[in-house]
Amino acid sequence: MAEPSLAPQNHGVNRPVHHTLASAANLANLLPTGTTLAFQTFAPSFSNNGLCHLSNRYLTAILTFVCAAFCFLSSFTDTFVDGTGKLHYGIATFRGLYIFNFDERDRDRYEKKELKRFRLRFVDFVHAFVSLMLFLIFALSDSNVQSCYFSQVGSDWNSLFMNLPMGAGALSTFLFTIFPTTRRGIGYADITAHRV
């Protein structure tokens, strides 16, 4: 008697599921997880664990601004692998992709029309603003930031600060899944899709 096969059977049904799971796996790159982690690392010391003096308020505001700017701008970054296997990093502009790590030899190899397909689109701005708003919600919900800036608010505001990140995270995940982007930003796990 033959042993039953444990290998998964592929009858074409798993294709939509695979696409959905691949999109969900890349949400960590779309959501501002790295920026939020950096903010949560520095916020306790910058805010003096919520016991803010004037200098701590300025430091926390500067940290929030820098992380928010990085979160916004990282939505416009992209990467591609050229024909030689070299990985290039750049930022999207209205004319195409501005490459950070081009050598002069590389610059002659690519025509502008090849990099024009990476130009800015409307969905890039949607992703940038959603990521920015999501980061600001998480930053303002941090207990040290709340103690520093919102120490006098009542229980209604505390309840809002507690529940807002979960709702905003679910909404942004839904929006990123419904309106996917083709950007493969710096640090993106799946860079093989862009080849020039």
From TrEMBL:
InterPro entries: DMP (IPR007770). Its main location: membrane. One of its GO terms (cellular component) is membrane. The keyword Transmembrane applies. It is found in: Membrane. It is a multi-pass membrane protein. The keyword Transmembrane helix applies. GO terms for biological process: endomembrane system organization. The chain crosses the membrane at residues 58-77, 122-140, 160-179. Keywords: Membrane, Transmembrane, Transmembrane helix. Belongs to the plant DMP1 protein family. This is DUF679 domain-containing protein. It comes from Ficus carica.
